[in-house]
Amino acid sequence: MGRPQAIERVLLKLSGESLIRPGESGIDPEVVGLLAVQIRRAHEVGVQMAVVCGAGNLVRGAEFARMGTNRATADQMGMLATAINCLAIQDALERAGVETRAASAMEMKTFMEPYIRRRMIRHLEKGRVVILAGGTGNPYFTTDTAAALRATELGVDVILKATKVDGVYTADPMLDPSAAKIPEITFKLALDRDLRVMDRTAFTLCMENDMPIMVFDMFQEGNLERAVRGESIGTWIVSE
After folding, report:
1. Beta strands of the chain (E only): which ranges?
2. Tens digit of each residue's pLDDT (9 = 90 or more) over 66-111
3. Residue-range domain boundaries for the chain
4. CATH number for the domain formed by residue range(s) 9-238
């Protein structure tokens, strides 16, 4: 499977850093508001959209684990932090006029639905943006892996991997001025070259389930809308 012939349902993978300005931590309401506008414009194209956000702006479980915190506990802290980001994105989207549903892989029934695959698909079919918190609900798995898992379960056409660069390069373009942008690459080649688009668990899950990924610059105005239209604005990662 190469690029999808038509894009009708997508999963947008955001990093926690998407919710703040460079060098900051926490959540910047203005940045989240601008992000919500971009998501609204992309949604208005007519695609169904699910969102998974990391929590690096609040908690990095791996860092706590390195400092001696039990790894499972550290990861649970990170999963809770994704719920905070999820609620911030949901509120901004609702204020921007987008109907949403927030769901968690962990039980948080006082303010968020449980993640139930069929229910989430129904929300998508009704035109709601679904924001998914809690990762996979298990420690030792990243939000990249959660995004790959949910994308596969929900039957999306592509994972849109939002980054601060405009695609995948042969080397780090910030360190190597000779680095060249790769417009399209197969999963196998990306793994062989150790390009590290996602962690290997997430990447392998996408490869085994023929789930294409588009890596693009989320911070360029209008790029998300272009991405859901299928324009080649970043790097496509596809099966053979």
Report:
1. 9-14, 48-53, 100-104, 113-114, 129-133, 158-163, 168-169, 181-182, 184-186, 213-217, 235-238
2. 889 999 999 999 999 999 999 999 999 999 999 999 999 999 999 9
3. 9-238
4. 3.40.1160.10
